[in-house]
Amino acid sequence: MIVGAGRVGSSLAIDLARAGRFAPITVVCRSDPEPVRSSRLTALDIAVVRAERDAGVPDAVFGSAGAPDTRGLVLVFCVPDDRLEETAATWARACVDGRIPAPALALHTSGLHDASAIGALRRCGAEVAACHPLVAIAAPGNGRFRGVTFGIDGDPGAVARATELAALLGGRPCRIRPDGRPLYHLAAVFGSNFLVACLSVASELFGECAAEPPGAADALAALLPLARSALDNLERDGLPDGLTGPIVRGDIGTVERHLLALDPVRRDLYRALGTELLAAREDRLDAGVAARLRDVLGPGGGDDEDSEGGASDGE
User: Fold this and answer.
1) Which domains does the chain show, CATH number per domain?
2) What is the pTM of this model?
3) At what angle do helices 252-261 and 287-297 cross, to 10 degrees?
4) What is the mean pLDDT of the chain?
């Protein structure tokens, strides 16, 4: 049973239904899922049940004529991070009160939280684990987890089942220290969300420099091949060999002109990201060049006055 009909929960339901290993599958949601999501799920004979309460325990699904087989019940919580502990605690209370059957296993897909976030379900006899897929899912669908790393921690039996689940979905399991979960989640944010933020800034800059300003979609379309080529370089050559650009080459003058062309907020972002790039390749630059770049990228370096325009030598 999957609690949460969002993009991760819906994609998980679709893949598990196609695999045929955990039938029947029931997806519980607080409100009606989006029409396309609902149609994809019901087309695969996945039951979508609306929970009347905010915490998401659907009284009607258990004990009815069409109720799922609850022997060996597995709960998978695919709910927002801030609601996870409350939702799991509510299900645990319903289990203790006898309103729902005791699950044998409970998992959650939060990247930030370790398995203890759903530890309340241990009172029902369930083993618990965190099983987070390192993937950005923009829309629900099948095959979203192929080749994806799953960050896993928790009780031994639950970890074993989560590892099997990752393999079934075509992913790769990776054990995460419970106290390392915030760093794990930060790695995910830097590797995806902040990448999007950088492309958002890049699209705005591209629009500002064009003789005939493109729309936002056209600006992004112009930059996506560049972004993909950067990722391809990293996949092929790794860090730091896959890096390119003026900081990696030691082009001090170009970096100074970049800083002059930026507003204060973007200038600080450039400095922060540039410092990280420099750290990755500093040992391969001339010592004097590296020292000068550190000065230019530091506070007050390369921005004695604001100016508009500037060179474009990002690649």
Assistant:
1) 2-176 (3.40.50.720), 183-297 (1.10.1040)
2) 0.85
3) 10
4) 87
